[in-house]
Amino acid sequence: MAQNLSAGSLKRTSLRDQVLDLVRQSLVSGEIRPGDIYSASALAARLGVSSSPVREAMLTLVNEGLMEPVRNRGYRAVPMSEHDLDEVFSMRLLLEVPGTLWAAERATPEDLAALRAVADEIEAAAGAGDVVAFLDADRRFHAGLLRLCGNRRLVDTVLSLRDQTRLYGLDALARHGTLDASAREHHAMLDAVAAGDTGRLEEAVRHHLRHTRSDWAQPEDDAPSGKR
Amino acid sequence: MAQNLSAGSLKRTSLRDQVLDLVRQSLVSGEIRPGDIYSASALAARLGVSSSPVREAMLTLVNEGLMEPVRNRGYRAVPMSEHDLDEVFSMRLLLEVPGTLWAAERATPEDLAALRAVADEIEAAAGAGDVVAFLDADRRFHAGLLRLCGNRRLVDTVLSLRDQTRLYGLDALARHGTLDASAREHHAMLDAVAAGDTGRLEEAVRHHLRHTRSDWAQPEDDAPSGKR
DNA sequence: CGGACTCGGAATGCATGCATCTTAACGGCC
DNA sequence: GGCCGTTAAGATGCATGCATTCCGAGTCCG
Question: C17 C1' – A47 CA distance, angstroms?
Answer without folding.
Answer: 22
